[in-house]
Write a structure and sequence with these properties.
The protein is of the alpha/beta class and 244 residues long. The chain starts with 5 loop residues before the first strand and ends with a helix. The protein has a six-stranded mixed beta sheet with strand order 2-1-3-6-4-5, sandwiched between helices. It has a single domain, classed as Zn-dependent exopeptidases (Aminopeptidase), CATH 3.40.630.
Amino acid sequence: MNLLPILISIPHCSTFVPAELRRLMLLSDFEIKKSADPFTDEIFNASNAHVVKAKISRLVADPNRAPDDIEMECQLCADGVVVSIDENGKQIYREPPSEKAIFERVKKYHTTFHAEIEKLKPKMKFLIDGHSMWSVAPATKSDAGKARPDVCLGNRDFTTCSRSRTLKILKFFQKKGLSVNVNKPFGGKFVIGEHCSRHRLPGIQIEFNHKLYLNEKTLRPRKKDVEKLNKIIFELVEILAREI
């Protein structure tokens, strides 16, 4: 199949932590898995698009945060390229990594992820940044305790994707019977902020609610629902390629 000029990034799909770093962590394997966007590597892996997948857990270095966004000194933060607590407020490391170690991680993992995107960008017409979200927001989030929609589209207040195209994507998902919000609770982070512009390379962040395809207590997927979402992304790629 010929690939269409649509780029899909999946920055939070991996649960891999190198052994030397795993020994420094207080989290269980299940807690590390919970910090990822489970099965987004299958959902957003459209066979008709160019796909860039993270190869490392976001707890090691988060590709969807600015490389200098270091929050290790903030014990109440769960945001940044390297963080000290997870989304549920649990301490990640026995001892926090040094600033030198953090920037070594950024260079090894964050920089290489974005280099893959940069290599493909000149031939691309649209970027989809693929994510998943908990059905009810965790304690460290601004919408803590609130139920979330089936889909959240983020365009950084319409700076990465025009209103008209955003509405077309919104209506596409609504026709699939899904509830959709724009920029609430997620407006988009570093991937689309760094690589997208509504005038050059437009792009949008897509968050699927976990309840659509997995058991949130066990993180076990419902295979047919994962496949259904993957087909939806395939169809969206086809539509975007025709319109741009």
